[in-house]
Amino acid sequence: RLIPEVRIVEVGPRDGLQSIKNAIPTETKIELIHRLRKAGLRAIELTSVVSPHRIPQLADCQQVLADPTIKLLLANEQEDLRLPVLVPNTKGLEIALSHDVKEVAVFVSATEGFSKANINSTVQQGIEKARTVAQKAIEAGIAVRGYVSCIFVDPYDGPTKPSSVLHCVKELIDMGCYEVSLGDTTGAGTPAKVTSLVRFLERNGIPLDQLAGHFHDTYGQGAVNVLQAYLCGIRVFDSSVGGLGGCPFAPGAKGNVSTEDLVFMFHNAGINTGVDLAKLAESGRWITERLKQPGSRSSQCVRELR
Ligand code: HMG
Ligand code: MG
């Protein structure tokens, strides 16, 4: 097997599904995870353990984690297979640990408006909650990934100061996150903004190999933002099968950049991702048809170019 030159973190089962209104059967969520794994994805965010009042779609997170086939995946999780679960607080962490999860993701916002809407906390309170979760997770011997939301724009407060992003990234690294994913929650980013922020973080001592890009595709800039971040030296990208995704507390924001688009783009440039594009595209068609969502355009390309 070729060593992937780019690592993709598939967030479809979590970010992809969290804002879909109609209840998706738990079995569909479980099958999606297996299909993604069989397509060669080596990092899949399985679900989130958050307030079911806030994210009703993922209220069945414990059923997903307790499923025997998912348990088997978790038991065989190794260095080259990561299955993080998003948690906002110690309650979420404790539930995740009770299901033998080996990695959690904590999340903070660089901006006050989204922080209040998303987790009912100020930015600093959010950082403190994330720190408590990270400390307990590390004590329990599991890995912690971090997210910073609203790296460019907050849906309530407008443009974000790069220094606010830097503050959150530093705090997340300091609390022990092995990697921090830069979340363009509203999809307002463009390649010029990506370069400017990545260079700013780099100048301020943030190692590029601890950063990942998490771009939402609201204005069609997702793939070009990924490419630009790649050209700046970032090698880890979050994406969602079929371009599903969005946060209900970021009004107007659309799905994540589609995993199909990234794999198609990188493979055509000779950059390996370790993902089987044909299998991935098939999974994308399967889930988006089921959810009556438009799906990724590059999955049609895979058919036509075959
Ligand atoms: P709160 O509203 O301040 O109130 O919640 P609370 O702490 O008193 O809890 C409210 C209720 O939730 C209680 O239940 C708790 O027990 C329960 P009740 O007694 O009313 O029946 N609860 C939980 N249940 C299950 N698991 C838990 C949990 N915690 C509390 N872990 C809280 C604060 C942070 C919990 C809430 O606001 C919340 O869950 N927010 C999460 C919202 C969310 O999931 N947003 C989407 C993910 S972030 C994202 O999409 C951005 C990202 O993709 C990057 C990017 O794009 O930028 C990561
Ligand atoms: Mg997101």
Automatic annotation (TrEMBL):
| Annotated metabolic or biological route of this protein | Metabolic intermediate metabolism; (S)-3-hydroxy-3-methylglutaryl-CoA degradation; acetoacetate from (S)-3-hydroxy-3-methylglutaryl-CoA: step 1/1
Q: Recite the UniProt keywords alphabetically.
A: Lyase, Metal-binding
Keyword Lipid metabolism appears in the UniProt entry: no
Which reactions does this protein catalyse?
(3S)-3-hydroxy-3-methylglutaryl-CoA = acetoacetate + acetyl-CoA
- EC number(s) on record? 4.1.3.4
Give the domain of life. Eukaryota
Keyword Protein biosynthesis listed? The answer is no
Question: What sequence ranges are listed for the domain Pyruvate carboxyltransferase?
Answer: 6-281
UniProt record, GO biological process = ketone body biosynthetic process; L-leucine catabolic process
Output the Gene Ontology terms for molecular function: hydroxymethylglutaryl-CoA lyase activity; metal ion binding
Q: Which family does it belong to?
A: Belongs to the HMG-CoA lyase family.
Please give the name of this protein.
hydroxymethylglutaryl-CoA lyase
Organism of origin is Talaromyces proteolyticus
Specify first residue, last residue and whole-protein length for the fragment. Answer: 3 to 308 of 556
